[in-house]
What we know:
Strand content: under 5%
Order of helices and strands: HHHHHHHHHHHHHHHHHHHHH
Number of helices: 21
Radius of gyration: 41 Å
Number of domains: 2
Oligomer: single chain
Structural class: mainly alpha
Number of strands: 0
Helix content: over 70%
Distance between the termini: 74 Å
Largest sheet: none
Amino acid sequence: MPHSNPKPTGSWLARHRGGVALCCSLVGFVLAEVASHFRLLPDGLLTLIRAFFEGALVGSLADWFAVTAIFHYIPIPLLARHTHLLARKRASMTEGIADMVQNRWLSPAAIRTWLDRVSFCDLLAGYLFAKQGGMTRLETLSQRGLSFLAHHVTHSSVTLMLCRFWQRTLHRCPLPKKLTPWLLRMLRHPGMEDQLYQRMACLIEMLQRHPRIMASVSTSLANQLQLSATSSTWARTRLWIGKRFLKGDDDADKLRYLLEKALTGLQQQLLDMAEDPHHPTRRIVRRQLFLAVRKADHNGQSAQLVETIWQRVLPVLTHADTAEQMAHRIQNELSSLLTNDMHLQKTIHAFVSHQVRLLLVEPARRQFWDEYLRIQCVGLLERYPHVVGNIVRESLSPARMSTDQMVKQIEDKVGQEMQWIRVNGAVVGGLVATGLALLRLAISALG
Length: 447
């Protein structure tokens, strides 16, 4: 039959030091009174012993009342209303703790100071590499996030949020000012050039699915050709379109068909350029882009032209229909990706590994994300300064924790230290009483 281990003596003593001190003081006081009655000790020594244990007993009782009154009810007339303080003062205590945490310990200024010292990239690196399987957990989390997004991206609320985010991003985008430096950086990094061609191909595909944009571009192209109607250019263009592209009943239909064919061919060409670093068209584009960028640095009209084009395109890109089509496109892409588990795992692994490597290796990227996340956290603190206090109030509310549970938790945490208060009360009381007895004896001897 298994034998249950008794509780350690030290643990019991740690919880009952105050009671042991009170019992020792009481026993010592009784023995001192017995010794005094039977005159078992010399009068001077007996006076000091009686004074010590009398002071220790008074100190022990006083500190027992003070400590116990914090946690429990003591039915003593006239004093009972000053006991069970934690339960009686729960509301004011909760408010005081919330105020202390919100405005002192975790105040926006304190958190902002901590954020200035922390590196989110280092925290991510510690999570991914300090613990085994960090990358696997991140990949699993990414897969679950993609699955959730695929099922809810076309929801009206998600589409509205995507639309607002898209509009805010485009309106804040300093494209005319950042275009030239970005093109120069792209020309120096082939990986960025590959991404540019791939994204341009995706953009062309999105434009082809947007009837409003296609109609606007076709109309603009027809208007530009109409301006040359009196010259031989328009006649030759019409003849060439009619011979090469026979679809459509009028010039507008033929131009629309021509535009679709041109965009489809351009999309395929961009994909080929992204896959082949030595594509001949890619070399030509790089040379022309380099010349155009250098020319734009010395010509203010180029920047003004980009600004004009951007302002014309911006209303079309920020239209609600564009965000809705983006949502459907995202859903289609994610759905097709989620149907192939092996391809999905490889894609997520490659993407996560690439992004983590860039995040942890490139100092500029690390600094950008640290500063970005720091700004977002500070913005949340300034926007919701009372969240920390509300969390504390909710955690200490009667709905989350009963009064008995709260008192028990606090007593378990600080009860052992409170026992030392009772022990110290007995010792200090005994020493003070002994000192006073010595003083009386000294005065008597002098008298």
